[in-house]
Design a protein that fits this description.
A two-stranded antiparallel sheet has the order 1-2. With about 140 residues, it is mainly α. It has helices at about 10-35, 45-65, 70-75, 90-105, 110-115, 125-130; strands spanning about 80-85, 130-135. The longest helix has 29 residues, at about 10-35. The chain is elongated and about 55 Å long.
Length: about 140
């Protein structure tokens, strides 16, 4: 079964919208973290804070991807992430996709740029994780 794939620019605009939503989530999470851990000069503070934010981002994405396949931005832009055979992601697939996306983005965005050259126009993390982004018709 084939599923329509949203265009690269539609997905890019969705990523920008996703970034704005994620910044709001991370702002609230950062406020809570700083409220609890007030000593920002402690040696352990920076790595603990970075791990905490990465965990919050991971939870945000994996929860949405395993509960309907759409983040808030994806709902707005009528997209869904599914497995290669069109099913909802399980937790292992969602975590794998998230971690691969983080690596691909931190490697100069190669995971996103990959979609320009991929035969199915999928991101590199989707290709490796066995997932894909599809258009939602309704």
């Amino acid at each position: 079964m084939t599923y329509p794939t949203p265009g690269f620019w539609r997905r890019a605009v969705c990523l920008i919208y996703e970034l704005l939503l994620l910044l709001a989530v991370l702002f609230m999470a950062s406020f809570l973290f700083h409220f609890i851990f007030r000593d920002t000069q402690a040696v352990y503070f920076k790595p603990l804070f970075q791990f905490y934010l990465l965990t919050i981002m991971g939870y945000y994405f994996t929860w949405f991807w395993t509960h309907g396949g759409q983040t808030l931005a994806m709902q707005t832009w009528k997209m869904r992430v599914v497995t290669a055979d069109g099913k909802i992601l399980n937790h292992k697939q969602a975590i794998t996709r998230f971690l691969l996306a983080v690596v691909g983005i931190f490697l100069f965005g190669i995971g996103i740029i990959w979609a320009l050259f991929d035969r199915d126009h999928q991101y590199l993390h989707d290709r490796i994780a066995g997932t894909r982004i599809i258009k939602v018709e309704h």
